[in-house]
Amino acid sequence: MALITASLSALVLVREPAAGAQPSTPATEVITAPSGSSLESGAVQSVPAVDLERFLGQWHEIARIPAWFQNRCVKATTARYQLRTDGRITVTNSCLTRKGQIDQANGLARVLDPASKARLKVSFVSVLGWRPFWGDYWIIGLDPEYRWLVVGDPKRQYGWILSRSPELAPAQLEAAFQALERNGYTRARFVLTPQD
User: Fold this and answer.
1) Averaged in consecutive runs of 10 residues, what is the pLDDT profile of the chain (196 residues)?
2) Cβ-based neighbours of 44, under 8 Å, separated by 6 or more
């Protein structure tokens, strides 16, 4: 279903900027991997750091690499991420099907790298509480104001552009695609997600 990697994935809580927050960064500035990173050898690289509190909440899918687990989704795909008391993240993906019905998948995410919080594993399969399948969910592009983010995986099998709003301004969408291309993705693999 919506936004799930390898075996399925996705996350979100919208937060107002704090009083006295720094001025907005231009839409084209993007948080990317540090220079000298493994990107130079062709590896997918997550961003240096993610503020988990700002990441939580609801995101709208703007574009994706088509995947079998999202075949029923035709529009209005969202992902909601909520922090649990055990430090894991509840994931709720939803979309509208061709028949206009809501399709929903519930999952669980865990942070792999506590220092950066940019690499997660997500599971949407539970067998009596045991989760045998986990998919990579790496944040590989991020707007400094958390208006959009780009998700990928180390093998470049999956990819999503997510936004806080159902639409992205052209400059922001271009910045997201550039983050994908810096990680070895081809923008032609992505399809835009209808919103209404």
Assistant:
1) 37 32 42 45 90 98 93 95 96 95 95 96 87 93 98 96 97 98 97 91
2) 138, 140, 152, 153, 154, 155, 156, 183, 184
Q: How far apart are CA 41 and CA 163, in angstroms?
A: 29
**Residue 50 is encoded by which pair of tokens?**
């993610």
Residue-range domain boundaries for the chain: 38-192
Q: How many other C-beta atoms are found inside a 10 Å radius of the C-beta of residue 187?
A: 14
Pairwise CA distance, residues 115 & 119, whole Å: 10
Compute the 3-state secondary structure of the chain and give helix, strand, coil in percent, each to the nearest 5: 15, 30, 55
Integer angstrom CA distances of residue 105 from 117, 123, 154: 23, 10, 23
Q: Which residues contact 48 (CB under 8 A, 6 or more apart)?
A: 31, 33, 34, 116, 118
pTM for the predicted model, two decimal places: 0.79
Structure tokens belonging to residue 31: 């948080």
> Residue 19 contacts by C-beta under 8 Å, 6 or more apart in sequence?
none
What class is the 38-192 domain? mainly beta
**Burial level of 27, CB count in 10 A (0-12/13-18/19+)?**
buried
Please name the residue that has the structure tokens 């035709």. Answer: 74
**In this structure, what are the phi and psi dihedrals at residue 106, rounded to the nearest 5 degrees?**
-115, 135
